Description:
Elements: E1 2-4, E2 8-13, E3 22-26, H1 36-45, H2 57-61, H3 68-71, H4 83-94, H5 96-114, H6 131-140, H7 145-149, H8 156-167
Antiparallel strand pairs: 1-2, 2-3
Amino acid sequence: MNTLGNKLRVTVFGQSHAPAIGVTLDNLPAGQPIDLEELNAFLTGRGTAPVTDGAPLIALLRRPQVRYADLRRFDPEMPDLPADVAEQVEISVKYEGYIQRQLQEVEELRRMERRTLPAGTDYGAVQGLRLEAREKLNAVRPENLGQAARISGVSPADVAALMIWLER
């Protein structure tokens, strides 16, 4: 955690190889009124669409052509962050959707790892599996759905068929 000034607290969390890396900004003041004409001139100069009905600066930061430092001139209350912290803020904002999807995929994989497959299963008798998947599953004998999903030759449709078979 790092404190900038008297009001703003910046917290960087995660590790370089962890499922999530991010930054939280606490006590950031509410939006400041800005000169829309100046902002639009800046945006069009950067090759991005102008704002027609006002937008929070954080929404503008999601655009690939806009950097955190660029927006400081439009909001004097924005703190002057160290370059590495500003970069983390940009990454968190710009890639938030991707990060959330990745976290959902990680959670789905964890759920699949918890769904065990019975030992000694005859995958030739499981309806809905393609021939290649039956052969691979019988050869590898995965312990759970997560392992089955990682076998080359087992498609997502095959995994779905296994899930349906397990529910019966």
